[in-house]
Amino acid sequence: MNARNEVGDACDLRFGQVGLASVRIRRPDAASLCEELERRVRSSPKLFSRTAVVMDLSELHPIPDDGVVDALLEAVRSAGMLPVALAYGTSETEALAERMGLPVIAKFRAAYEPAATEAPPPPPRRAVEPLPAAPVQAQPPATGGPGAQYHEGAVRSGQQIYARERDLVVTGAIANGAEVIADGHIHIYGSLRGRAMAGAQGQTEARIFISDFRAELVAIAGQYRVFEQIPPELEGKSVQCWLEGEKLLIERL
């Protein structure tokens, strides 16, 4: 067997959709960072324990020296999370990442970061009709992109569905450990037991509509709520989720 075939048989390298959380460091205080992240992990271990995170140092000016950054990385690990990369592709960040032995995700944009073109302010809140029993035509995408992406049937545990620059309509159940993500709105005409994240590129006007609410997490434009136990008044009910300022609100339909 020649070398070319040996390499081809040794592995299969492909790119795919990967959900990553971001830790944006506001001040270079490793002890405070570890304490805050430990609190998050304790509150929702299924969601945050050993989760892969991208370290965002963009608010630190100037970027701290290698010793401070190494302490911040160790704080994240000590809290129970796994730093796998640095965000942003400036030459300074790239040099730092190389010294730290980490890659740089140059075009990574966490949901809390607005898109390059600011989205228009959210329209006044209006009464929303209850969800119908069967799928209907989706609302226009919050991003102004093409029509909605449809997913027929269930989303299995470990599976991720991402509607880029459009709304997402799911007609089946979303299992624990599954994720549905959209740059626009999300409409779920089944049970949500996993995670739903709308406005993934920072669109604060995005909403999530769910027929049967049993979620692990819901998020809009980076603002999220985690549920170890669903409030009794919401469990199994049809709900909508939206943002008011930086607060994510959920109410029955």
From TrEMBL:
Recorded superkingdom: Bacteria
Domain Septum formation inhibitor MinC C-terminal: 152-251
Keyword Cell cycle: yes
Location of the Septum formation inhibitor MinC N-terminal domain: 13-83
Keyword annotations of the record: Cell cycle, Cell division, Septation
An annotated GO BP: division septum assembly
Region of interest called Disordered, as start-end residue ranges on this chain: 135-156
Coiled coil: none
The family this protein is said to belong to: Belongs to the MinC family.
Complex formation: Interacts with MinD and FtsZ.
HAMAP family: MinC
NCBIfam families given in the database record: minC
Protein's job: Cell division inhibitor that blocks the formation of polar Z ring septums. Rapidly oscillates between the poles of the cell to destabilize FtsZ filaments that have formed before they mature into polar Z rings. Prevents FtsZ polymerization.
Name the record gives this protein: Probable septum site-determining protein MinC
